[in-house]
């Protein structure tokens, strides 16, 4: 009987753990640099290590899910994270820290590909947008707790062992839930989106990948470097850099909660475009943070709020246009991982050379780029809808209302 339980609660717990796994590099950055004697610019190598592990694994792990081994694979990934955190905690050289974060990135990619793919397979199409935003809301919950968890861990133990213990407890709960849940049957794209021509589908997928590269670069840059940026700001008497980082993740999670509610009533694509435009405006506000501490607090919260809905909502858009299987999801996740590698690593070099005041400008450029690419996805998607309805639907049905999946186009 237990094996027939819906798997969604397990995936939600997995994404809380994913939020912790992918987010502790930023709050721990200064501690780790001092631990191994690395410069600010070399801190970018740590981020690069995590991203390389993430990209390589996201491209290699898809077959595990398409062949029905998803639950076991996700649990193995969490066990790897625990071991990697303990390795990082004991590291006495930069290359060991980089290697440890490469393992974290590999495990995180496995969880990311698996959670998104398996959730879509387990849910009816009309609930995909809401369920994906709920999934990524749980990522935000984990990310909110991470700066405070890392800060307390370092203050109390001068290390990251409590972080590893927290992840291990969560992984145990995940194992129990997965053991009591049914595993969704693999779904293949051609069975659900046979009306989309391969050429059109390829164009849509490339557009979506470009979006994820640009967006993930902006999001990861803010997440990784906001603590370092805040250390050079006068934040006033109301908090510390760790608290400002938590404020970013609070705003981020609130944005995903808002997206859960919004996608229940509206198609995903308009929600996505609105969020992209709002993130551009909020990033522009951060340019004044150096002159007024209140701008740093309000602007950071607003950037987080506007970035929050974009990842999951674009996944819902992609599923509505072309469908998601393990291979498709892995290509999207790899594009996001590449953005998370290239942009924060380059940002570390730029901040080391020109100062941390440059961070808001970099985030603004990324937010504007994600807005432009979201509009490009909408344009390509509208071309797909026209071709599908005009070329492939029988004449007497060409004026019928589009399906819910076409509703993803907004």
Structural class: mainly alpha
Distance between the first and last residues' Cα: 40 Å
Oligomer: single chain
Strand content: under 5%
Order of helices and strands: HHHHHHHHHHHHHHHHH
Q: Average pLDDT, to the nearest integer? A: 84
Reported for the largest beta sheet, the result is: none
Give a short synopsis of this structure.
This protein is mainly alpha-helical.
How does this model look, in words?
By secondary structure, the protein is mostly helical. It has helices spanning 8-23, 25-36, 43-60, 62-66, 70-89, 94-122, 128-157, 161-179, 189-192, 198-231, 241-265, 268-285, 293-307, 310-322, 326-354, 359-392, 404-407. Helix 6 (94-122) runs antiparallel to helix 7 (128-157) and helix 7 runs antiparallel to helix 11 (241-265). The radius of gyration is 21 Å and the shape is globular. The two termini are 40 Å apart.
């Amino acid at each position: 009987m237990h094996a027939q339980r819906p798997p969604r609660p397990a995936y939600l717990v997995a994404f809380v753990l994913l939020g912790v796994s992918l987010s502790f590099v930023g709050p721990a950055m200064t501690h780790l640099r001092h631990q191994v004697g690395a410069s600010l610019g070399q801190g970018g190598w740590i981020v690069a290590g995590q991203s390389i592990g993430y990209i390589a694994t996201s491209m290699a792990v898809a077959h595990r899910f398409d062949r029905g081994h998803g639950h076991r694979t996700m649990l193995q990934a969490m066990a790897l994270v625990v071991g990697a955190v303990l390795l990082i905690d004991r590291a006495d050289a930069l290359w060991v820290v980089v290697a440890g974060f490469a393992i974290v990135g590999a495990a995180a990619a496995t969880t990311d590909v698996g959670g998104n793919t398996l959730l879509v397979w387990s849910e009816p199409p009309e609930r995909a947008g809401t369920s994906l935003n709920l999934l990524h809301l749980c990522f935000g919950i984990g990310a909110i707790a991470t700066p405070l968890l890392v800060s307390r861990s370092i203050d109390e133990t001068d290390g990251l062992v409590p972080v590893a213990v927290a992840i291990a407890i969560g992984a145990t709960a995940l194992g129990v839930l997965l053991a009591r849940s049914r595993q969704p049957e693999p779904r293949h794209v051609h069975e659900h989106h046979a009306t989309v021509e391969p050429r059109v589908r390829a164009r849509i997928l490339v557009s979506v990948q470009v979006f994820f590269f640009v967006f993930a670069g902006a999001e990861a840059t803010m997440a990784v470097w906001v603590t370092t940026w805040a250390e050079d700001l006068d934040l006033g008497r109301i908090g510390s850099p760790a608290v400002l980082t938590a404020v970013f993740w609070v705003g981020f999670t609130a944005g995903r909660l808002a997206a859960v509610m919004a996608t229940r009533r509206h198609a995903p694509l308009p929600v996505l475009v609105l969020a992209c435009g709002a993130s551009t405006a909020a990033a522009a506000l951060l340019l004044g943070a150096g002159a007024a501490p209140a701008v740093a607090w309000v602007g950071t919260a607003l950037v987080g709020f506007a970035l929050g809905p974009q990842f999951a909502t674009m996944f819902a858009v992609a599923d509505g246009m072309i469908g998601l299987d393990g291979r498709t999801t892995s290509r999207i996740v790899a594009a996001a991982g590449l953005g998370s590698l290239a942009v924060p690593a380059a940002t570390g070099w730029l901040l080391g050379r020109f100062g941390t005041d440059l961070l808001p400008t970099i985030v603004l450029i990324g937010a504007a780029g994600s807005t432009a690419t979201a509009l490009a996805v909408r344009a390509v998607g509208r071309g797909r809808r026209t071709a599908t309805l005009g070329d492939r639907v029988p004449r007497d049905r060409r004026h019928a209302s589009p399906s819910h999946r076409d509703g993803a186009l907004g």
